[in-house]
């Protein structure tokens, strides 16, 4: 591979020269190849230490009189580098002799090489075409979407507005489906978020002919007159599926894949946009992986038509060759005729066969030589038009694979691991616990084994076997026990994943067994409830292996962790497979074959249940109605799907279904399920209730027998029971009757049902949220619904991590949370206090007050509280809130000090600073007193305030625990703790509805704070229509309170410290210390604090409330319930474009 | 005559995974405690004939998977239940804490006509084990707070109190069924509206 010429100073010591010419040197790296002298070993080690893994071959260019070498080509294999070497001689050397100047030679070489590279990489980096960019911008502008909302493609179509179609453009982007039309001076805009779509389908009705229908919770949309309806629809499906998958699991969200794009851009015809090509490439890769059961990381490089020589029938089958990083695959044009999966790790070399004119069919042929112990056949592909390119590509891939293998081998044999392993992976349990042989069965197994041997001889063995219908027939008949592991591993693709992760299982187990986790606890409980009928699981040997596999899996994939049913599947795998193989089969099963089955909400199983329902309706319509009435589908299908029949049939029978399942994928489950239902149709139709129907099916299923199983498990109950049908007949019939179901069809159905199921889950989630929050009483259900809608919208559009909605340890509303930026917007738009100049500062303080876990987010319940307390709560609650948010720690001195706004000048500021510096100095003391209070509170239930405390402790254990532990060892963080504690008690004060009693504990307010408070009151009222009454009232009450504060001064000194409240204690501690501790320590702002002699001005919350409640206009105002619904509508109408506005942080709050 | 008609009582057993639901059901129906069974996946049920006040009734006891992630899936057969049995493990405090959520979930999904009076029975299982984490008093307090639910301490392993508990369950279920029938006869149509108001039980109601 040629590279951009780069200067190399010396042809340094790590390299050995293989060939030279006047202008070029071909070298290989020491340590590469067969020579294993001391120095070469050294280089090898250095390379792995630095993990640089340089290409082992290179070509340098140099002119005889120059000191400088240019690196012009690198190669992973000798073969590859030699090709470049030859190319140089054929294309460059001739010309070089015609130059007289050496510099010209160098220039020419470099130029030539760069040109070659440019051709190879032709337009890899190309961006979207200009026209497309313009449209993309227009799209964002039209719909007010952020810059990063990139357009994928746009199509001309018409939108049915009522009964009239409007011709316009449909714009599809990653998150939206939009439509715009401008006809006769009016424009029509539609903007649907993919994640809101509940149904998407093609429709052809009288009303909406040949159209695409999109349904959301609110509305139905019809579009028609597409030029390329299918392309459009496919893209829509893809986009909606991406959105849905993101709802299931945030990690699956869309990311541009540049690498993938580069791979395919050479072969794929130019499409409108970068993203569209990306999505196409993605879809192709996905289809490729599905077809050949390849690991999910495999990305398709390209494909080309060719023929494959099939030695078993001496033919040349035409089909298509596929290349990806680790595999060569082939599929015949005629479906199911033959296919091949060749892992590159098993390939020794791939090279051209020199054309033999006598044999036309071997024209342009490549031979792939295998080095796998199981399969030594070679594969011959011919008629490859672009053979040279394919060969180059293949050698590149092979070189990389071989290097990876060396790398992995090094890693796997890390000497550190060799220290006395605490556990050894288990052999297949059936070899440890052989069941008593039944002669007849053994004979059958032997016969079968022979058939398989013969098959291997003709078709090859292992992953790269020629896959034809012959092997399918063998699999359907049941795989002999001793071959199960091998066949399962090869056909499911698990072998491929295992090969890519050497040593992974061991390290997982080592970590997993150390770990404490709920998954591990759940696993522990189920170990003995997995396959208790098998002797292996009546012994610690089987149990230990099962524990290791399940715990390792839980660690490997925490989003699934452990789900009941996995234990049953895993234990059956362990019977037939070695431990590590069982693990990888479980991985493949959970992640590829049954996607999302075992996750937090068992989404995948519910999706497939919906598919079974639909298929039943299609094939067995009468039965479907009956099953629907009985509500049966949910009951049966879960156990059938989640355990692949293992827990509803005798496992020795079900394991034959497993054979087909690993060979053919999930469609087998549907085929078998439909067959079972069909056979029991008549009896099911007679059933009176669901109990009877369940019983019927479960007896039938437990009677399914397998005369080829080892059968020692056939304990009494098994034989006594009515034998119903043999598993072989069941599987045969399942294929005969429902063989027409294809994997592709199932995938399409999954897509459709996933959409429905996920949206239903979302609805359930939101219902739960509403159920929890409505009890707080601030808003009505419709109001909360609308508010939640806003929050949902915000969360989705943030594209940040969405907290797991299904995490059982969280309350439902905790998944819906917003940051301050958005709270500010909501507060301004929805709260009556959100209009004035101080609104933002108020918002910040209310936010801090309500954010009970102090994570910088308000969850939905807290949000509803924050808004409710300012707009719907009763007057006393609102006033308490108003008072509270003007107390420290919510309103700090540094906030009030802001110089430009404080008209009363320095006096107040310094006074305030004084107050606060004393307070801060004595924080520790106040905390001590807080602790005392806390200790005391459970014992003194008479004080309602203590009760308040106690309740806090119970309801928010996490917060309080963390505080508790901090207190003991981190002195520096005491400010935080004090803040947390006082915030908690303030929050409780505000939220509690019964008033009087607990108010005693509320801290008094200093004059400075009060002045700020009063300014806020003016500010809030300013936004209201002017009313003289109100202004008078404000002025009167303000004056009154100021006077009251002065009176308070006189009593302050004699204040009784024993008053039983947290805040008094804190205040008292301050007061006390300011007598005892007069040292001049600078406060946190660096101002020296002056010892105080003057006595404090203060008012209490009772005084505050009482004064205001006396003024009717104020009471009226604070009792008015304002409707958020109207405001929400306004907010929605006014597209908030926060992406473009600079958002301020709440850190500096100005008053 | 009503008493001659075959009566079928539908009972649902709910509770966290591994509290002993399946074992209790087995002990009651088959009078044995065995280790030879798989964890319950989906739903399963057993039937048993019982005689209550000279009436023979068939009890259909539904067992469910207890793992959290299955909680909202087993709901199809909650409908039409005559009694709901809540089970916790007296040695595992978490299983006691989940009771509220099991009860709430049941009431939502089964949507009984009178949620306040729907019969529940609480079983504290595994009393043969030490050490106990939840005292009888605490369990009783919880029952009291939920409109006086009957409480039994059982051991599926020793067969302790199982018979008595299920008899009480059957009685409650029967009473519920009779009452429902009566109500239904008295007010043919209108009654269907009344499940709108349901008590609002926050998660913090547990009196511990
Ligand atoms: N000691 C004791 N163990 C019990 C009792 N009931 C059940 N178990 C054990 O608890 C585990 C879980 O029981 P199981 O019935 O499967 O629980 P389920 O998940 O609620 O159905 C099993 O290992 C039982 O043997 C009991 O009363 N005493
Ligand atoms: Mg169970």
* Count of discrete alpha- or pi-helical segments spanning 4 or more residues of chain A: 45
Uncertain parts of chain B = 186-208
Q: From the structure provided, what is the oligomeric state, counting identical versus distinct chains?
A: heterodimer
Helix count, DSSP H or I runs of 4 or more residues of chain B: 5
**Widest sheet, order of strands of chain A:** 9-8-7-6-12-11-10
What coarse outline of chain B follows from CA principal-axis ratios?
globular
Distance between the termini of chain B: 49 Å
Report low-confidence residues of chain A grouped into runs of 5 or more: 33-53, 122-126, 264-271, 898-972, 1052-1094, 1136-1151
Domain EF-hand (chain A): 838-873
Protein name (chain A): TBC1 domain family member 9
Keywords (chain A): Calcium, GTPase activation, Repeat
Organism (chain A): Dendroctonus ponderosae (Mountain pine beetle)
List keywords for this structure.
heterodimer, A: 1151 residues, alpha+beta, seven-stranded antiparallel beta sheet, globular, disordered C terminus, B: 208 residues, alpha/beta, six-stranded mixed beta sheet, 5 helices, 21% strand, binds guanosine-5'-diphosphate, binds magnesium ion, repeat (chain A), calcium (chain A), TBC1 domain family member 9 (chain A), calcium ion binding (chain A)
Q: In terms of topology, how is this protein built?
A:
The complex is a heterodimer of chains A (1151) and B (208).
Chain A: E1 2-8, E2 15-20, E3 24-29, H1 38-50, E4 57-61, E5 69-75, H2 78-96, H3 102-120, H4 130-143, E6 151-161, E7 164-173, E8 176-183, E9 186-193, E10 197-203, E11 211-216, E12 220-224, H5 229-248, H6 258-265, H7 274-292, E13 300-310, E14 315-324, E15 327-332, E16 339-343, E17 347-353, E18 365-370, E19 378-382, H8 387-412, H9 429-432, H10 439-459, H11 469-476, H12 481-492, H13 494-500, H14 504-514, H15 518-526, H16 540-556, H17 566-576, H18 579-593, H19 603-619, H20 621-630, H21 632-642, H22 651-664, H23 667-679, H24 681-686, H25 690-702, H26 716-720, H27 727-738, H28 743-774, H29 781-798, E20 817-819, H30 820-830, H31 839-850, E21 857-859, H32 860-871, H33 875-884, H34 893-896, H35 906-921, H36 923-936, H37 944-955, H38 957-969, H39 974-991, H40 1007-1022, H41 1028-1052, H42 1062-1076, H43 1101-1109, H44 1112-1119, H45 1124-1133
Antiparallel strand pairs in A: 1-5, 2-3, 3-4, 4-5, 6-7, 6-12, 7-8, 8-9, 10-11, 11-12, 13-14, 13-19, 14-15, 15-16, 17-18, 18-19, 20-21
Helix pairs in contact in A: 5-28, 6-7, 12-18, 12-22, 13-18, 14-16, 15-16, 16-17, 16-18, 17-18, 19-20, 19-21, 19-23, 19-28, 22-23, 23-27, 28-29, 29-45, 30-31, 33-39, 33-43, 33-44, 36-39, 36-42, 40-41, 41-43
Chain B: E1 7-14, H1 21-30, E2 43-52, E3 55-64, E4 83-89, H2 93-97, H3 99-110, E5 120-125, H4 136-145, E6 151-153, H5 162-186
Guanosine-5'-diphosphate (GDP) is lined by residues 15, 17-23, 35, 40, 66, 125-126, 128-129, 155-157 of chain B.
